[in-house]
Design brief:
about 425 residues, mainly alpha, Growth Hormone, Chain: A, 20 helices, globular, transmembrane transporter activity, MFS_dom, MFS_sugar_transport-like
Length: about 425
Amino acid sequence: MNQPSTPVNPVRRILTASLIGTTIEFFDFYIYATAAVLVFPKLFFPAGDPASATLESLATFALAFFARPLGAALFGHFGDRKGRKATLVAALMTMGPSTVAIGLLPGYTTIGIAAPILLALFRFGQGLGLGGEWGGAVLLATENAPAHKKAWYGMFPQLGAPIGFLLSSGTFFILSKTMNESDFISYGWRIPFIASALLVWVGLYVRLNISETPEFTKVVNNKERSKVPVADVFMKHTRAISLGTLSTVTTFLLFYLMTVFTLSWGTSALHYPKSDFLVVQMISMLFFGLGIPLSALLADRYGRTRMLVAASACIMVFGLFFAPLFTGGSLAMTGVFLSLGMFLMGLTYGPIGTALAGIFPASVRYTGASLAFTLAGILGASLTPYLATTLAKNYGLAYVGYYLAGAALLTLLALLGAGKMMKESPNT
């Protein structure tokens, strides 16, 4: 049976469904990241050394990145066996309740050691859901896309990252301006966590009104479904999963350096006011959002590999100037630093979903792309705030930049190795 020549779903519905879900998921994920720096060290961990409490809080932040590959394998299995649509709905309904539960969780002074344990459990649930969300959203877009617009369609789920971050930071900024510190720590931080339930229902409604992708329908009709997709990915597509993971490492590392680490370091070691720093971070997200569609246009015109290699080379150079740019002596200079870093982030993030989907056949694409993306999260992001803080304290900020530059070099080499697969893969 031939693949349908036109998408089953209207273009607007496809792109809306892929964008709104990732926006919700990343909003949920980022409100945790922000609270892990500003609130959780004081609320969920025993009173003592503030620096130790912050590191413990950042450790729970890292936990979700280890849950994400499990989510990728679990939801990827059903996404490749049962379909993209149902799996996307299930992923959304896994992360949403976990986020609301965090917003309702009592602190350490109320329930003792159970507080950080439950926090870690719900954080694990967030990671599990996001592990299945991203890959399905990318496939929903790219498997409905015409051949010459794969990267353009595939960048819509990627836009959920800057939009989700802007919603998260904007919410915390408004709360910090309308509440005193005591009320914010007591209950104000809980508002975005609980309110995310409304966003989940919106996303659920949109996704229940889409049809299955043409490429998965073709896999079903041709009886090509894998019995155990995760096994096939590691046994039959070892090179693809290895190079795909390494090709994505710097994407994660750069993002969490420019968001979680800079927020923590900027408001502590550099003594910038929290609300002011959140403003410059929100401005930098606009440059992140600008870089995503620009990179998608360039990727469709010149090739995904070329676009990603160029972005990685620029990030490597940026890492060498990390310290002097970050400590430029003023909040305005720091804003330029953040905007430049996030623009580079947009250039590497825009095409990466389409690129990862392109190196796996449709029968294991949900599992393969999701696992490559989430395994890169472990290597590139899970411990990044912790390691960067340790490097900065013990050796200076320059070594944080070297850390970024080294990762960018590794990614560049992996992209050169994966480039041939990206070009030769069918349906990409």
